[in-house]
Amino acid sequence: MPIEVDLHNKIFHLSSRNSSYVMALTSQGYLAHLYWGKRLAVSPALLRVLPSMSRPFSLTREQDSLLSLDLLPQEYPGFGHGDMRAPAYQVLLSDGTTIIDPKYQRHRVVAGKRDLAALPHIRVGSPDNAETLEMELKDAYSQLQITLVYTVLTDLDVIVRSVSFVNHSRNSMRLLRALSSTVDFLEQSWEIISLPGAWGRERSIQRNSLAQGIISVESRRGTSSHQANPFLAMVSPDTTEERGEVFAFNLVYSGNFLAFCERDQYSQVRSGIGINPLDFSWLLEPRETFQTPEAVMVYSDKGLEKMSWTFHTLYRHHLNQGQWQHLDRPILINNWEATYFSFTEEKLLEIARAASNLEIEMFVLDDGWFGERDNDRKSLGDYEANSGKLPHGLGVLAEQVKQQGLTFGLWVEPEMVSQDSDLYRQHPDWCLQVPHRSSSWGRNQLVLDLSRPDVQNWIIEILSKVFQRADIAYVKWDMNRSLSEMGSSSLPKERRQETSHRYVLGLYHILDVLTGLFPKILFEGCSGGGGRFDPGILYYMPQIWTSDTTDAAERAKIQYGTSLIYPPAAMTAHVSGVPNHQLGRITPWDARHWIAMSANFGYELDLAELTSNEKTQAAQYIHFYKNTLRKLVQWGEFSRLQDPFTTNGMSWMFSDSERNEMVVVYLSLRTEANPNRTWIKLRHLNPDFLYRIKDCSRQQESTGSGEVLRGDELMNVGLCVWPRYDGFTQAWHLVRESLAMSQV
Ligand code: DGJ
Predict the structure, then answer these.
(1) Over the stretch 310-369, which tens digit does the pLDDT of each residue have?
(2) Beta strands 257-263 and 269-275, pairing class
(3) How far apart are alpha carbons 164 and 705 in whole angstroms?
(4) Looking at 284, 318, 352, which one is the last position of a domain?
(5) Is 478 in the active site?
(6) What's the domain range around 669?
């Protein structure tokens, strides 16, 4: 069983295929953390990891006692009575004090996992796939109950944690901090990996060693943000893609978050992740409950690749469960970079016809189709088709697109409002706002207050009408600014600091209802590109526009960093025009294809303007994607082979789980004159099998086509590239043939 409880020694052992997570009760009733790492046969001897010592300036709970909360590794530490490290939670009681001393009350082990009512969560399917430990702690003075919930997935090295707070007293209390998980580690050297970025430069890989002090990753922007991702991994200094231990945390949440690692005076390390305590508090009235988001904790004993595979498998199978989870994602053409706001029905149909000739599968109408939206200063909120641009309406356009053999998709930005809109004129109070303070602007727009049920209902109603007005197969859900002036005209002042979390809950409610009402629509998340790329959004929408940067070289880095946690099936990528609209670079047509085809593939340029040569090549790429690459992107395993952040090239590999078929992609980011050859060593092949290799890029002369090589040679010598210019790409399709002769 994944959860074993030794009642005599009060030890709780959560084990997955390769990992153990162990906690124990101290004689005073504190819940201590003993171990997380490679799977162990746990015995009471493990209790020796608990320190029994006195140290200067580390306080003890009793006189002459050797129990110091400052030294004790704990499961959910508080602040104020001896532990001086960063706490997991803090609560302001009605008497003005903040000390809470929760002790063990009872525990339950249940099969499977409970769903969370108002928050996105991991779904385990059959109860046989997981077991859950609910650990109830209670503070006798305040009557606050804290329940720590741990779900262990049987087949993956994953523990999902969350916490609920219940006020059993007669007085209200206020949560000031309520993280989803903290883990204390024994003394060891750590490096911390995070995914910082900016608009257009999302999720670069950053690795820092952890000295005494804190490394924190956080968003204060109301969304998970371009600048940070709710992810942090602790790795040993020798950890690589293939080797070393990794302890990784990812929050299933789309708002402000905090993830940190603190190394204290004795090199004890505490990591934590949860809702950002900054500008957060939650009034907990008697009998009320507060539920935190879920934290996903992944252990890998085989480096970063295994960590990524665990996240990828978890998110592909246990997060979004709509029908699109299992269907081929359509190759689409999006009109944004082709026309921006300036288009006519005829121009759109011209692009759709060109797409149809290339056997592209979907046409997506982006921003600018409604109200008087000829620029980004107006009409957000007024979702009636613009009669000048679409004289026959949305339904007719969708029908005409359908006649070209394409399905129809539509852009919306429902969380925002333009001041110059009928919606704002009717409901100025529907914006996020703080009395006596003017609102800040982002992209000339204001933010609708999604914490308000009337605003939630309006969005559900208006979008339902839009989605019924035409045959809509896809929706791009955009969100183009950070949140500020976090206040709601509908919340009393004592609840103002609940606004940002209530906004996120409101968004989840809207998405829950709309995805339930329109189960056939493929929803794609977007926030100025990848500004809200997190598991909370992926729970409702199986794919996300990864970045507004469409240049292939920059995109390669963004997709590479994103792949640390999120599977290629969660990313979308488009071939766009040159010079690139974000940075002016001219990247070859082939490079643009190989990077876009390494995710959910599409185009975003005026297809009607392609040369006949470009059309021929595009048709070949589309054919290859449909017949070979799409299934590997959606369902295959993804290996990062060459790091674009530390080398001047990038390569990655898609493979089916049996290793019968693989596609390897290489891109040169920066080439020198008279360059060296580069060798790409593959991974996970069978050393004794032969693989037929087809160079499916168009630079076929360098390795020839149809070569047959042994697995051990491909893994130890590799594929050869001779990158002759910036943006040079090469790609190979490998098919396993048979055992090599020497093995027969
Ligand atoms: C930001 C998105 O990321 C773009 O792809 C595009 O949809 C624009 N918004 C439209 O305003």
Answers:
(1) 999 999 999 998 999 889 999 999 999 999 999 999 999 999 999 999 999 999 999 999
(2) antiparallel
(3) 59
(4) 318
(5) yes
(6) 641-743
